Amino acid sequence: MITATQSMEERSAELENLTPEEAVAALLDAASDMNASDLFLESNVDNVSIAVRHLGIIHPFANLSNAHGRRFISHIKAVAEMDVAERRRPLDGRWLVFTRGGDKLDLRINTIPTLHGEDLAIRILECDHALLTIDQLGLIRAQRTAIVQLLNRPSGLVLVTGPTGSGKTTTLYSCLQTLNDGKRKISTIEDPIEFEVDGFRQSQVNQKLQLDFPELLRSVLRQAPDIIMIGEIRDRITAETAVRAANSGHQVFATLHAPVAASAVQVMLSLGVNTHFLASALVGVVAQRLVRVLCPDCRVAVDVSDSPYTFDDIRPWMEEPDNHHLYAPGGCEKCYGTGYIARTAVFEVLTVQGKVKRQIAEQAEARQIEATAVDQGMIEFRRAALLAVANGTTSTEEILRTVPFDYLEDE
Fold it and tell me: In 10 A of CB 213, how many CB atoms?
């Protein structure tokens, strides 16, 4: 049995002695046991390397001979109903599979031609994975209160921002599940649909049919929804339609690529949205970054009692105000020697009201909007990240790895 605790050489030798069918099944079992999010097979000059992404970090897993590696890739393409003979063009496929432990996995597969052959990437989604509630997202109490107030608004646009892979869709699902009481029609437009949820009317983008977010959004609006979730705003038509829908009485939730909450306004304006329409429609922005959670069995306490003012800026929100420790990663068998055992998010929750609305209408800079929001009680990334460190959730090193330094500076 292939396991994460074996050496890379042991895993490589064992995989070489298995048939492609057996080896792929063993790989998926190991990836599922690790809670890996992605599996990669990459063609090199003298081998095909296998790597996994675990808690956002890519780890080398095994190396195969070129011949054996190509057979692996061909097998995966065949079961995913992809064209096995096509190696010159990118391909997409999907495969539903059960692991040895009985978990059902939804595998989203992509191949791309590279210098030395095909690379294959597998996105691993657990079909039976329970949706997180708002309480499980990692929000500070004040942030949770702000989000609940946004959800209780009868209409308006709520944007969830952050880089790719920062958990934006998970946050959207959590928000929508809170509203999923059977009394309102909830329609989603996704690429791809990550989880099937009872009570949601879910539609998926299909590029082959030229069915993208703008086309689906126009059609969804004719279905008379109360709540609309847009997987991503990435063009002018989708942005304008989302704003119009929010101004016409719908609750609209969407993701957007913006570094911090306040900069979402500039991104929307850059897409061509009317300034005054945006100021009227936008009710809130949630920005987030994923950080790894320290393993409680091996984390190492670091005494900071010689620096008693370290946490002064965040003490009102600390779980233990008198805490004088922060923690560093250790490493044990439970966390596969990484020092981290899960992931959570750090957030900014910007409520758009009063002066902030006026600043949006006046096209103020992101820094001005952020300063106003902080004056009104927003916990920005700097303090949210420091709170995660102070509460023992994560380490300083992890914060510096995931949150750009510009947003950690105290101005």
Answer: 25
Print the domain residue range for 89: 8-126
Say whether both 57 and 173 belong to one domain: no
Amino acid at 123: R
Element (H, E) at 269: helix 264-270
Question: What global pTM score does this model have?
Answer: 0.89
Spatial contact of 113 and 70, defined as CB atoms under 8 Å apart = no
- Residue 229's beta-bridge partner residues? 188, 253
Sequence-ordered list of residues with C-beta below 8 angstroms from that of 223, at least 6 positions apart, any chain: 185, 187, 201
Q: Is the dihedral angle over the CA atoms 139, 145, 146, 149 positive or is it negative? A: positive
Last residue of a domain, which of 100, 126, 152?
A: 126
Mean pLDDT by 10 residues, the chain (411 residues): 85 92 93 92 96 95 94 95 94 91 90 96 85 92 96 96 92 95 95 88 87 91 96 93 95 96 96 96 97 96 79 80 80 91 96 96 95 95 92 92 75 57
